[in-house]
Amino acid sequence: MTDLPQQHFIDIAELARTLGHAHRLHLLEHIAQGERAVERLAELCGLSVANTSQHLQHLRRAGVVQTRRDGKRVLYRLGGGPILEVLAALGQFAEHNRLAVRELLADSMSAQERLEAMSRDELVQRLHEQSITLLDVRSHEEYALGHLPGAISMPLDELQQRLAELPQDQEIVAYCRGPWCVLSSTATAALREHGFKVRRLDSGLPDWQAAGLPVEA
């Protein structure tokens, strides 16, 4: 069998270098929720506009993000290819190897809650049956960029004040940005304390979109 050419490994190493920065991974988490301008991304990640722009250029050259112009603004979105799968694999590997990551996740999401999380396939079926209330606990901004069909926008910081809007006789499913986002697990725990029957989705909006499922905006 012929060995793979050296360029194959050079390309992989170059991509790894591009992704090997915490700020770039943080930026990608927000870009995965929908198109954003550099100024807004800088605000969300607590970076300067110049620093954010520099990181985005690295990601763009690698094809990880793409851009389009909207008047004077340049909007960033995820590039083509299995980017979400790559990010998910990195997260899974970090969880496997780093005890600190597992301990951090355990603070917000118990082992029992992980077992009780609802899969994407089950959610599709339950939405078809109209047997659940779907709760988006991300920010209103992220909800406006795109959300799961029929989801109610109720950011985590508004949850306690809006409990009266939620049904006591129907199961609630909370979701947020993805499997490493703790907003939905925090919301799940809070709602259970008030007697609601609630589960969290084991993924988020980017995974839903990547599966080719419909999104409302």
Automatic annotation (TrEMBL):
InterPro entries: ArsR-like_HTH, GlpE_sulfurtransferase, HTH_ArsR_DNA-bd_dom, Rhodanese-like_dom, Rhodanese-like_dom_sf, WH-like_DNA-bd_sf, WH_DNA-bd_sf. Residues 4-98 form the HTH arsR-type domain. NCBIfam families: HTH_metalloreg. Pfam families: HTH_20, Rhodanese. GO terms for molecular function: DNA-binding transcription factor activity. This is ArsR family transcriptional regulator. PROSITE patterns: HTH_ARSR_2, RHODANESE_3. It comes from Pseudomonas putida (Arthrobacter siderocapsulatus). Transmembrane segments: none annotated. It comes from the Bacteria. Residues 128-217 form the Rhodanese domain.
